[in-house]
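Request:
Um, any thoughts?
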Amino acid sequence: MGHDHDHGSELSETQVRVRALESALIEKGLVDPAALDALIETYETKVGPHNGARVVAKAWTDPEYAARLREDATAAIAELGYMGRQGEHMVALENTPDTHNMVVCTLCSCYPWPILGLPPVWYKSAPYRSRAVSDPRAVLSDFGVVLHAETEIRVWDSTAEVRYLVVPMRPGATEGWSEEQLATLVTRDSMIGTGLAAPP
């Protein structure tokens, strides 16, 4: 009598394929498992939007740091230990009540990995890359961001030579909040300019 063990897999078809490819590469000696684990751990814990949120929160609470961030964003971000490939030549863009900044890479998907992690799928899509330039207000509306008609929207095109970090406006009613508390309000999208910092 045979047993049917159709309990369903917890892995998606793509995850199963990735695991099979990973196993084959390791078996052939093409990939070092320790190096692979270190790479995965880096992208899960060491890089990502939580780093950028810390940069923004520090800029919100420390005027001297905010000035250094405006003057030389690469160096100011490195002060907090965030640097490396895809994080060179950074420029910080501050949103104000009169100006809203939004970032795109019209040619590919240049993106500041050390402080924002891996780019979202939509950031790399052709519709976003073209519409962000031609109709940024409509793109923002698609993301649920509706700005006053008189607010100027500036679109910045990332390249291999320069990448951008949007510093969103600090939400009201956060006086006395710590950097750690403020960082929880900073979203990945707000640092691309397709979102706003979350309300408290």
Notes: The radius of gyration is 20 Å. Confidence is low (pLDDT under 50) at residues 1-8.
